[in-house]
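Risk register update: the risk of archive-format incompatibility is retired. Evidence:
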Amino acid sequence: MSRTPNARKEETHERILEVASQALRQQGYDGVGVADVMKKAGLTHGGFYAHFGSREVLLAEALERAGRDSLAAVGRAAAAGTEQGASAFRALVEAYLDPAHADAPASGCPVAALGSEMARQSPALRQASAARVQALVGAVRATLPRGGRSAALAVASTLVGALQLARALGDGAEGRAALAAARKALIQQYDEPYATPP
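Archived output:
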């Protein structure tokens, strides 16, 4: 059975978003060029406007896609942790602050990848960025054994900051130490019943 033109267009749209979401996390907002994205997606530059009204629309959709994919990946890793007996909070923290997440910015959390750039974007992109931050805070809050929004904001800030520091320090001992210190501090502070002795 052949695909309909609408189905093909949707598949193409998703392929462009996949490429753009990876480029966005890897190279930042300014590093995403329409021509490069289209080329990497195996398409011509001229076909871009059949899918997006502007580069800014592409960036906003790519950011949403990156956030959705990242939260899903962390969610899968956290689910594996809970299957092994960890609390949902501990599993989330361990998945987010895993060295593999730090080593993969192109497929990781867009808030950590783009955090310092978000406030300098256009109003539409700042709004899309704020939505990604709120989604991360919401995911954290859903796993907290106690505490409300303030605790979720503190945890999300620590997660993002630790991941950014680890990436800045590199994949050696110092970067790993930043991740381990943040994991330990968060689990001890917010997940005491499950915390292991130091």
